[in-house]
Amino acid sequence: MKYYRTAVMLLLFIGSSGAVRAQAKKISATKNAVIKFAEQRQQELINLSDEIWAHAETALKETKSSKALADYAEAKGFRVTRGVSNMPTAFVAEFGEGKPIIGIMGEYDALPGISQQTTPTKAALKPGAGGHGCGHNLFGVGSLGAAIAIKELLQQGKLKGTIRFYGTPAEEAVGGKVYMARDGLFNDLDVCLDWHPDVEIAANTQSSQAMIDFTVTFTGKAAHAAADPWNGKSALDGLELFLHGVNMLREHVRPSVRMHYVIQSGGDVPNVVPEYAKVWMWVRDSKRDGVEQVFLRVREIANGAGMMAGVESTVTVQTGDYELLVNLKGAEALQKNLEILGPIVYTAEEISFAKKIQEESEVPQTGLNGAIHPLKPTRKDPDNGSTDVGDVSWVVPEISLVVTTAPIEAPWHSWAVVACGGMSIGHKGMIYATKALAMTMVDLFEQEQLRKNIRSEFEERRAGHVLKPYIPDGPPPIPAE
Amino acid sequence: MKYYRTAVMLLLFIGSSGAVRAQAKKISATKNAVIKFAEQRQQELINLSDEIWAHAETALKETKSSKALADYAEAKGFRVTRGVSNMPTAFVAEFGEGKPIIGIMGEYDALPGISQQTTPTKAALKPGAGGHGCGHNLFGVGSLGAAIAIKELLQQGKLKGTIRFYGTPAEEAVGGKVYMARDGLFNDLDVCLDWHPDVEIAANTQSSQAMIDFTVTFTGKAAHAAADPWNGKSALDGLELFLHGVNMLREHVRPSVRMHYVIQSGGDVPNVVPEYAKVWMWVRDSKRDGVEQVFLRVREIANGAGMMAGVESTVTVQTGDYELLVNLKGAEALQKNLEILGPIVYTAEEISFAKKIQEESEVPQTGLNGAIHPLKPTRKDPDNGSTDVGDVSWVVPEISLVVTTAPIEAPWHSWAVVACGGMSIGHKGMIYATKALAMTMVDLFEQEQLRKNIRSEFEERRAGHVLKPYIPDGPPPIPAE
Amino acid sequence: MKYYRTAVMLLLFIGSSGAVRAQAKKISATKNAVIKFAEQRQQELINLSDEIWAHAETALKETKSSKALADYAEAKGFRVTRGVSNMPTAFVAEFGEGKPIIGIMGEYDALPGISQQTTPTKAALKPGAGGHGCGHNLFGVGSLGAAIAIKELLQQGKLKGTIRFYGTPAEEAVGGKVYMARDGLFNDLDVCLDWHPDVEIAANTQSSQAMIDFTVTFTGKAAHAAADPWNGKSALDGLELFLHGVNMLREHVRPSVRMHYVIQSGGDVPNVVPEYAKVWMWVRDSKRDGVEQVFLRVREIANGAGMMAGVESTVTVQTGDYELLVNLKGAEALQKNLEILGPIVYTAEEISFAKKIQEESEVPQTGLNGAIHPLKPTRKDPDNGSTDVGDVSWVVPEISLVVTTAPIEAPWHSWAVVACGGMSIGHKGMIYATKALAMTMVDLFEQEQLRKNIRSEFEERRAGHVLKPYIPDGPPPIPAE
Amino acid sequence: MKYYRTAVMLLLFIGSSGAVRAQAKKISATKNAVIKFAEQRQQELINLSDEIWAHAETALKETKSSKALADYAEAKGFRVTRGVSNMPTAFVAEFGEGKPIIGIMGEYDALPGISQQTTPTKAALKPGAGGHGCGHNLFGVGSLGAAIAIKELLQQGKLKGTIRFYGTPAEEAVGGKVYMARDGLFNDLDVCLDWHPDVEIAANTQSSQAMIDFTVTFTGKAAHAAADPWNGKSALDGLELFLHGVNMLREHVRPSVRMHYVIQSGGDVPNVVPEYAKVWMWVRDSKRDGVEQVFLRVREIANGAGMMAGVESTVTVQTGDYELLVNLKGAEALQKNLEILGPIVYTAEEISFAKKIQEESEVPQTGLNGAIHPLKPTRKDPDNGSTDVGDVSWVVPEISLVVTTAPIEAPWHSWAVVACGGMSIGHKGMIYATKALAMTMVDLFEQEQLRKNIRSEFEERRAGHVLKPYIPDGPPPIPAE
């Protein structure tokens, strides 16, 4: 997930979760099979996760990580197509045939500059290198594990249809799923699933923010800043006016809107009137409609600022996300399986590890939240975060899970999350996700009515909207080595 | 003069001025006649000046002042045309016929809110009323006195041609001369003269600044500022951005440019997103070309600011002045007459009055500057002031005089200048001006070659430029009573 | 109410309201008495309301309106104290003695510049004069009517205790209640009530926004804007920077915050560097704590802006409101009486009048909402409006009613509300308020337990907070005639 | 010179310069000796210049260039002290003993990124490498050549005293001379000389601008820009407000002031409220007093901006230059020698090379200006450029020469100047400078009265001012390899 999720703590449920487990209803043979599969292959999956954790490759450079996952899937008998959507590190792995087709997504890109050992205090593994500060090593493997568990049942003839795993790169940057969704790779699915590492366990019922990621550049005319500044047109003047305009716009947008920016280029040396200046900016709102209205105003502000400073302004959209289209029918099916599985139970060592991280991070030392709480009602405005799962959710019904892999209030995208993702706290969450996702896929394969209900809710929510992603034609720019 | 003149003090000349007078060359009979005339009619002219000083009527409301001057001219035998250029308080008074036609201008508008008695400490005559803080009571009468002196000689057949006095209202506001010049009232003149009260005596060799006076209004859409500000478009946002842009432009204009503004309207109550906002602004530079370039940029800034705030912007030119076209040949002729007249000599009482004013005004107590100094070279950039004489100087060669009527460094446009203009310091300066202007007009009537030289310098300087004043069609708006 | 209330339309209840009335429970004799009283004195009350509607006096100048109400109360036997809290138009009218003491408030100030006839199209009664665009003519009389109805019962010995009417001026400006609350005038009350004209009928369960009303002035040093601007310190520069800072602060306040301002003084003439500039600003948030935090930042912004421009900045608090402390126990008691009274039923003429107003106001022609809907849950953040009832609600439990007196979505503070307040739509709402308030007061006098429950909720909510209003010592400045 | 000199073209003198030469007065034997020396050693000096031209080492990294010059001086018999003022590439080379002591300075640092061949069209020698776009290869060698010429005469006993060459690095960056002047290295000199490549030949009579080079950093508090921006304090807000304040200050500084800046750091990613931001800025004025007054205001603006944004601001002075203290007596002595030498005469090939460069640079194809024009009067405000020679000129009388080494209006600090500095146009200028400087030093050694006159003008001008340079204690930061 690009931006951390505000942890909603429901510690009161921890105590009662043992009881939930105790009263667990009878579980079907097929669900029992996927749970058993996850437990038997646990070490194999953990090894694969640790390998990707160690690679810690950043967006669109996940060459080894992508290959490890694709090779593993191939070894398990999946048909693998690599380099889909013109991204070398994107792939699709498929098993079985015919309908229904159930998809599941996995991410594996790391974040730059936060290399960390599996210790509860900050200590770089390779100084300057990347780290899995968003837990995508667990995400990719956990999802693939669930896909393989389903494959076993398909192979054994206990389920019928197709399972398809999507290796989706660059979630932290351009958003690989946005390109894959644009290219129609999800179109024939009945339902798609994903999960994400988090500080709690929940069947997601909340949307995410729609957003647009863009730059504004200004191009003027250089001049000697002391000798003849009147012959110059300052690109930086344009930029400063643009930002003033954006800050004024804040009064005139709804409270759910967020606009934030950095200055990427603001002149070279004081002695020259700057002929080039650049802002990198994001606009977000609860819905794409809202974000588009604001973006239109921002475009006008850029035009106006250029005119004021007598310079050229150019707005370039880099990428964007749709808000996540929630599917409550899907979430309810997932929630039932969470309640069957019950809470995650942590050892004293794990709790102590978590508290040490919390101490270092200067947040309350409340340990880990392994509880299952009841399905939450969908809020009008989502928490402030965006994800490229949003685009997928507008072409296929999407079921999203979050599972605890880090301490309560752990600072996301930091060494703290990297540390947990390489040891048992992360591993436990991943195996739990494998089970919950596979169980829910069993339901989806087995229950036509469930698929119909999910689809019908989906169609009602998207109301005929056709995906128009915020990306340029062609593939994303692949970063140079 | 709209804006005070920076006093350049040349006290060193004061001592020698007696000597200058002593060595005065033989004066022609005609010049002697105008000098004598001014001395004989001195009290009559002073009475008229004091009457206008007491009226203290502001721009375009100078009804009594204008009438007093026009009646006086008429009584002296001039043909008077009142209400020229559709301004009720503008008039032309003419005597004689045929060429040459020599013009001379007089102003008589006061400034609001600076009523003052003839005392050297601040004391309002009528609290809240206007006052002659720019000495225009002296200006109008001094010029008319010179015109009448010439009329005497024309009547006596000692000179040949036409003398024409221009009663030019509203110098402190819209600039009556701008309208009169546009309407061609000066077109048939050979030469025009004017003078202005000051803190020194000089044949003017400096230009003045070209300027444009305009407003920028912004019109948006009101909304409840707390309940739904996102439905409003703030005119005030547009205004604030406009001003930011103007302040950035300062880096990119030549050092001779001046831009200054006030906010005339910035919203009614905080609870409503302002739908209207207004700036009043002046742009100046040494030449009209420069001011036009800057004004073009300011227009773009207004457009851009409107676009940024999503509101309408409207730039409305109110008036403007050309820079004064200096005429050195004319100034040299005038300078010779100043040197004949010699310095103004003040009494101990006058000097003490002046020093008291300086004490009250917190400037050095250096008294009065009655000296004549040599002609100054024309500077590349003028002092920072503008005058509607500028427009006249582009249709006819213009000779400008300044004469001391107030203490050195007296704050212009203040009670201090009002006080002096109603007592002997002002009176002395006025009668001095009457003499110097009349003597110079004698030269102009008598010397065809001088007129030719002046005209030829004029034509070279204006280089075929055709006057395009910065005023709307029709007369200026006459202020309501 | 200072700022209009967002109308929440619940038209679906209109149909069922007849049924509600039909099933009306038995009504006690005392309640029946006050209902009957209101109906019998209806014309008298309407006449008084129409008189105040015609006076249309603005804040702290409500001399005739205040006198009319106080005289009426006196005539009915109340002990009247005029000029309380050093405000000539504030008064208290009391009847009875001993505990309990129940208070009820009435407003009577009009808004400037919206004079209007009782026609459904815009037509000034006296052009330029004020108008009751917030329905305070109804507010004052409706409340006093209820107080008199209670007085009858006290006089008849059917109730025991004291009824006290507060004549509270200047709600639209400084907030008379803020001064009266500060001065302890409400301290000995058991409960206080008020109502307000609106576009729906409801026992209020929502808070209002806390706010601070203040000015920021900047004082610099004048200089000639063309000749020596480097000797000036522009107060306007300080103001512009202050506003830029405020607009940047918007990113760093919670979404519930509102900040809005107008420029009241921005320089006199372009030719002078402005030495004085002034902003009038309001800051609001859901709670006083929030508003104080923002205000602290705004003070720093003013300081910093002054320092940047080299000028003095002064922040002057004018007034402020606490958020309303909701009392659900009180609202429930009121709601029961509303349900007993049932909806307001309008005639075809009234509905047509309302629709014409809606047509002229360019809002949907949905007529009038006379329905009673169930008590609404209290929202976390209130609608965006503030009231000086807020301060009262922190010293005594407060019960607030709103009653329909204008069409759905009628633009508040406009001619439309003035028109309705002078004819039967307004009158009906007022008499309805008289009944509902009197009935609820009957409950309060009769039920000690209800008073205890209300008090106990109040004490829990205010949690020991001691009122510190945002006003200077002494009385508010009384506007000159 | 840090910033190019505005070329004043006096082509009219070119034609007459032959005449000047023809009528050359008798030249003394000692002057003849230094002229002859320069002609004899011409090739040796050109080779050394070309070597340094090829090294093209940038500020404080001029290791090879500095060594080449120091080694050459040592080889010629000078006592060389390397690494003076703790700068590895600064050195002093001395010959002779006792008084008078005459100093002469040489620079040798190149500019980054403008590598160029000796061709009249743009063509990098080593792409990305530095180039001598300010002609410092010529500057260093030309000065050293003159010092050696003097050494010959001292060695031969024809002059008496000490000659001292200063190898002054980093003129284009921190200003090596500022450190050397602070450390007293020039204190015992009688007179110091320098020259600079230019587009004309002149004994300099103009000052340069005083300036301060500083950074302003802002430090706030990071927060998630979408989830809780209200917990962040944006350093970038502080920076934007600072710049707004600076742009407003422009109205309130004298027209001779220049302020210019770039943004060096403006946040990392849009998703985080920036906790760090940095501006790099220069302030200049005609005199140090003026620049200090402006700098005081800028400090206040930084403080105020920090306060407004709730962040810390830090102003760090990096370096600064005094304005050059002109010495007219010295300039007159130099001028006489220029008139003896007469103009530089160019070949058709050189003129054609120059015109090609002008064509490529889109300036008029006016060729080269080799003329000597009469000494210019000192202007009140200098051209807009600063130099670290300024600091030296406040501790010792300074004589400055400029000599043509590039075409008229050639864009300084560009490939065009690099190209000319490596071929005969540059070489000719350098040898000319060697002659003129050595001749003037002959005068200084021989004429005690000239030295006295120069010193006495110097003392009058500096009026007891004690140098306080704008640099931190200790040496400048040496850039890493």
Brief rundown of the structure:
Chain A has 481 residues and is an alpha/beta fold. Chain A is 40% helix and 16% strand.
Would you mind describing this structure in some detail?
- 4 copies of one chain form a homotetramer.
- By secondary structure, the first copy, chain A, is α/β, with parallel strands linked by helices.
- The first copy, chain A, is 40% helix and 16% strand.
- The first copy, chain A, contains 14 helices and 11 strands.
- In chain A, the strands form 2 sheets. A 7-stranded mixed sheet of chain A has the order 1-2-4-3-5-11-6.
- In chain A, a hairpin with an 8-residue loop joins strand 1 and strand 2.
- The radius of gyration of chain A is 24 Å and the shape is globular.
- Residues 3-24 of chain A have low confidence and may be disordered.
- At the C-D interface, helix 7 and helix 8 of C face helix 7 and helix 8 of D.
Describe the structure using short key phrases.
homotetramer; 14 helices; alpha/beta; disordered N terminus; four-stranded antiparallel β-sheet; seven-stranded mixed β-sheet; 481 residues
